[in-house]
Amino acid sequence: MVIDPAELDATLKRLKRVQGQIGGIVTMIEQGRDCREIVTQVAAASKALDRAGFAIIATGLRECLLSDDSEYDAAQMEKLFLSLA
User: Fold this and answer.
1) Domains of the chain from N-terminus onward
2) Which of 51, 58, 73, 81 has the fewest CB atoms lying closer than 10 Å?
């Protein structure tokens, strides 16, 4: 299944922000910043990454439902969805 990148534009932007957050977390650790600040940033990045994953799965589900020749069935999509839980 190939998803049109335009449909995932917001998700790509979110992933790029997460990428920046991860770089910031690495810097924070290298600088010896307070662990509470680091954990807060890790939690924010984790939540953003989860949301991106859910958005990708939701878009994939929609594509599968609209396509007669989808290579994925409902059980496979459910397994992907649950892998994020």
Assistant:
1) 5-83 (1.20.58.1000)
2) 73
